[in-house]
Structures are given as structure tokens and as C-alpha cells.
Predict the 3D structure of the following.
Amino acid sequence: MELTVIDLIKQTGIVAKVVLIILLFFSIFSWTIIFYKLKVLKKMKKEDDKFFEIFINSHSSKDLFSQAKRFDNSPMASLFRNIYTEVQGKNPINLEAILRKYLSEEIYKIESYLGFLATTGSTTPFIGLFGTVWGIMDAFRAIGVKGSASLATVAPGIAEALVTTAAGLFTAIPAVVAYNYFVSRSNKIINELSDFTENLMKYRWQD
């Protein structure tokens, strides 16, 4: 009779099951973040492009502020709204400092949750490795107790080693791939936002 993955999991001990639960937690949250970031970054880029088109054709900061309210997901529109609110009716002494402040906030939002993907990609293989080592130790312990190296003796320990190793890699690989992809997408949006900030430095805010 062939052993299924479920059969292997059933043969694992309590330590391996705890490791698998931890890896499952990382996997669920990683995939949730992956689908979330795919959706949000796409909206950010799309709305940034639309808002920038309006920006370059606008002749009134007040009208542009009203237009910016339509773009909830656009970092450019959010940056403009914050700066406009900050400087409206004032003569800002240090506009550059204000821009840096709100630019940092937008970059933080763009890069949100990427740290969890990085953590998942770097730590889950080692969590799986812990289960691997524990499974091998269990196999040797069973050999010592029973004085036999038969398949029935070592199977539970080997099952722990195989299952936790596979689970660690299964959790880590998508997180690493997604992290690298989202970093590239985020950097593109951030670079465009930084260029937009240069335009805001020269913008006539009181018009």
C-alpha cells in the first residue's frame, strides 16, 4: 500500500506536528499577503498613472486637490493631498522637509508586509530543518530502543524528517519569489513617486 502525505503526517510525533502548524501559519499569512499585494500594487500603479496625467494638465492646486480625492490607492494622490493640506494658506519655510516626511509615509505603505515575506523566506527552511533533525534523532532513538533498523522502526522518524523538510521548502519558496517580485514592483512605484516629489518642489501651491 502506498503512503500518502496524510499518512506520513499521521506518523509524525508531537514535535513535528508543532513544526507543521507553525509552517502552516507562515504559509497562510504569506499567501494572504501575496494576493493582497498583487491587487494593491496593481491599483497603485494604475491610479498613479491616471493622477499624474491629471497633474500635468492641471492649472489649479484647489481643483487638483479635489481630483486627488478620487484616487484612494494612488501614492501620488495621497502625497499631494497631504502636502496641500499642510501648506494651504501658509508660506511653508521648509517645503522639502514636509515632502520628505510624507514621502516616507507613502514608501512605508508601498512596502507594507514585505518584511513578513522576507522573514518567511529566510526562517521557514530552518524551522523545517529543525523538524528534519528531530525526525532523524527519533529514528536513531527508535533503533537504540528496539535494537533493530527495520523500516517499521525508523519509518516514523524518517516521515518527520521528510514531511517537515518539504513543508519548510513549500512555505519558503513562494515567499522568496513573491518578495523579490514585489520589491521590484514597489521600487518602480517608489522611483516614480520620488520623481513626482521633485515636481512638487517646483509646484505653485497657492494657485
